[in-house]
């Protein structure tokens, strides 16, 4: 079994990494060398990825422990809910889950619809061509998450600028100080916002979290700030990337967009298929550390080794998704892992679904002739971020 350097050589970011199909077939648990020089494992099949995510012997917390090697572009000792193991993760999830119930999320649909209507109408009124990333993919999620948190409209632009900087991945030799400064500014701002919500409660998620109380327990100030910053990642950056990838995937196949225009009742299935089909995550965010020797798919993973369950590879597993390379908007059985699996299944999954569903509904109604302005042109990608996406996506209609 030979070591491979991970991540693999970059190809088209819109397409699956070529090596993943070979690994699924021949070496589903593969030894790799990470950019830090550490040796680890890639897990590529759907069944095995789910197994890793559901097995407490694979720890997320150890990957960011204070004394851990810096395997991820994230601070050591991170107390974010996405990097904690039970029981700390279980406690935080219990306290915040009320803010993400299906009922509460669906109650946001009318407001999300208003925002999407305004954005689509403004794009169409501005005339073609337009940049769908700037017009739709960026402003919809940040507006929704700011309104959810209760961030005043006047503060939303700097809130967005800080969060954009925070998710930048510095290149070799680049100064990381601006990233740390953005994180500090964001934390200070959230601390002030939390203090204001204590004095002046509102009908927003941050107020709900400030007042969350169960079995004598509540969120600390540090936990509130950290969770607010985590929401920016889950509620803004990942959704922006999902929208951009989905629009590119849909418009790269004009017949698929025409199908959705003709059959808008397919929207919910289409969103699930676009999430499955898109190449949104790089894999590093799912990294775990084996806490003991574990056998997986006939391979012994030693205690202490990093393990990366690759959701984008699992979502192309032909054993689970027949004709997996095809974007099939009417696909019925679609157990994709775009939102992860196990205890760390994304809290905001339903909100992301609502945003994508509403946006597609508005687009097919207002711009039935939507298309890529230059379908043969090269797409420029934003790669210096935790969630790569098209930098711009010029469209016409």
Automatic annotation (TrEMBL):
Annotated keywords: Heme, Iron, Metal-binding, Monooxygenase, Oxidoreductase
InterPro entries assigned to the protein according to its UniProt record, in alphabetical order: Cyt_P450, Cyt_P450_B, Cyt_P450_CS, Cyt_P450_sf
Cited Pfam families: p450 (PF00067)
Gene3D superfamilies from the UniProt entry: Cytochrome P450
SUPFAM superfamilies: Cytochrome P450
Top-level division of the source organism's lineage: Bacteria
Family membership: Belongs to the cytochrome P450 family.
UniProt protein name: Cytochrome P450
